[in-house]
Batch of 3 targets.
Target 1
Amino acid sequence: MQAIENIQLAEIADTLVSLCTAFIMGSIIGIERQYRQRTAGLRTNVLVCVGAAIFVDMAFRVAGSDGASRVIAYVVSGVGFLGAGVIMREEGSVRGLNTAATLWGSAAIGACAGADLIVEAILATLFVLSANTLLRPMVNYVNRLPLDTEASEITQLIHVIAADEQRQEAMSALQSAVEQGNYPLAEIEVSPFGPDEVQIEATLMATAVNSKEMDKLVQRLSKNAAIRHVYWQATTAE
């Protein structure tokens, strides 16, 4: 009988408005993501938005505003796990952060709709959509600018190629040069490089660096008889 008593037309109409708002706002964001061929497209953003709205609206009906506040906190953490699933690490770079952030925004929009904050949900949709569209030309412009290694916080990689039998001598020379330059060393990896050579890759801590100093360090290492080839590169990947 409780199920029958819970059928209140006014409350059902309120829920319908919340879910419709979440569906429409999630679709607007999802269409843009689908057009860009992102991992989380139309259906994912709609489901996240509508799901958040359902949880918040249900909490309001069952436990009032206090219960809704607690559910919203759980929605935020739950969507965090979902967003982590679309973040991928490929060849030293991280992809999917923007998609994960968009899912987080979709959940926030759904929570607004579930809390009957319809105007707020619409405004949030406009801002999320603007971040993914209007800011794109600015991001593309900045990405095309030359990398300023002295002003940017970047990660430096030093690559040393040496004969397999001279691995230890080359590694010692590399570590000594890094210590003399007071560069914080994060890790060193050794991997095969051809039939009789190895590649020693030293990763320095992310910091602002003077490229001229790195060039001098490479020049000193190139004079070591155990090292056949050495070069350094800067990367923004963390």
Target 2
Amino acid sequence: MSANQKKETHYSFVQKVWIVGLIFSLIATILLIFEATFNILILVLAGSLFACFFRGISSYIRHKTGWSVKITLSISVIGTLLIIAGIFWLIGATVSSQTSQIEETFPVIIEDAQNSLNGSRVGREIMEQLEELQSSEKIPQYLSKFFMTTFGGIGDVYIILLIGIFFTISPHLYKSGIVLLVPPGKRDKAEAVLKHLGSGLTKWLAGKFIAMFAVFILTAIGLVILGMPMWLTLAVFAGILNFIPNFGPLAAMVPAVLMALAISPTTALIIIIMYTAIQLIESSFITPKAQQRLIEIPPALIIISQIFIGAMTGIWGVIFATPLVLIIIILVQDLYVKPMEEKDT
């Protein structure tokens, strides 16, 4: 082989190295951009759920009455706002006063709970573990990072509401824009997938609200029977936090258990059993019945997605991990699984 041929071969190898390096750099850049903008995608998802809620109610009213979209959508939005205002008018003052009372008496509740735990060997071990966690510097740093949002709490809520309003008013405008990005031969398929995504999120959201209301009712009944103070506020917390799978019910149980410990350890144990039983009923009967025609999401997959997405985006990722997993499952089924099955048959 001549010297010129060796030089050309060596130059070709260097080119390949540069190409591979550029490809890896491009992939790394895309991943960094994706990580930096993933919080924004979560907010867009939250706004889409906001729009699915109003459009779902509007579709239901239109299906039952045959009225126009403008009328049913106005009824959906105005009716929802009136219902929320009515709920606040009926129980808002009670919940607000009980919440203020909990905030004022929380140090006393903590002290009473500590005294109850220190009365037994197992309780003392729990207190030692909690003191070690409290003295650790990593826990406050992790919590501050976890609860840090994209634009701040008020800014995130404002963006979610703004996106939700725009999606509610003219969803077809944004849907058509997405479809136009697809090659002409695949646009019918894209429209079908988007329709499936919209109906899937709407059904999931409806089932979730049914489960939240059921948890609120069951928790309120149980707390009233046990004679727990501030039962209404604790039941409202349990219903609202049930929107967050796995971690929400656990967070709702903490204040109830602390208040029960101030009464007696036996009451705290009964509260733990009651909350656990309600969650078993909700996850085994209420949610499957409410979402019986929806895609079943494995519970382990929800926990894994909450851990991974929560590590990337914080509290919003934990809250909206389930609908994000639902979107991914629908996309995989419609774009890969079903076409492969049709091809095989």
Target 3
Amino acid sequence: MATIRVRIPRPEAEAKALSEAMEAVFEEEGFPVAVFESSADGKTWTAEVLILDSSVNDARLMAEERLAPYLDGGVLPQNVELDELPEINWVAKSLEGLKPVRAGRFIVHGAHDRDVVSKHDIGLEIEAALAFGTGHHGTTAGCLLELQRLLQRRRYHRMLDLGTGTGVLAIALAKLTHQRVWATDIDPIATETALGNAELNGVGPLVKGFTAAGVDDRRFAEIGPFDLAVANILAKPLVKMSAHFAAVMARKSVLVLSGLRIEDGPRILSAYAQQGYRLERRREIDGWLTLTLVRGNWQP
């Protein structure tokens, strides 16, 4: 199966609205969505989604079915572009030339930028890979800043990075605390990437990981309960797993949740309030939201 790129050119306002619809209807699969100016005069923009592990025909049917409420007549326009992309590491390709990014004391960088890390910084060397999380996204940066704030105030004993991606957050936790951190992901490639990056950053012995489809996997109960967990995922799975997630957390515990649009805040807070969590802090970066939630009568 291949990666199919679906591009729909529209006037600017329509393209932006369509890209928001794409994010909503493809949220659960996490298919990459983009919107960009595509004509010299600025009148035409293009909404794009990459449909993974598909064929051109299947991608067309999926896009038309899910986007029907947002399309004229419920069908894809004649100028829609569907292309099968060659087998390239598109995440790596997209990250070529990206500069190091700073989040507090952390600097997330590639191997070619090691010299930018001073003795006062905490370097996180993350090479482009088939996993999400490089620090260049507002959700990852928000989590890094929040973890620094929390760990300046209190020591935690069992820490979890759920949906670890490249492992950047687990590595950050290990470097800040010099303690064991568990890193898990639904994707075995992500788990392998995270553990490899932990070795690269000198914290391999501290970062332990495994692949699991959800927090109801028995291994979470065996190694928990956790008193600090970070999950940079998406709103829908975070809501769906709220009860199971809370069940593997300690009675007094902190959750740092991200991968959220600003408008996702109320439903996340509602879902986790039912599990005894209250909002302790919210952070917005580039239209993305990071929430810190606390359970128990304590102040993190």
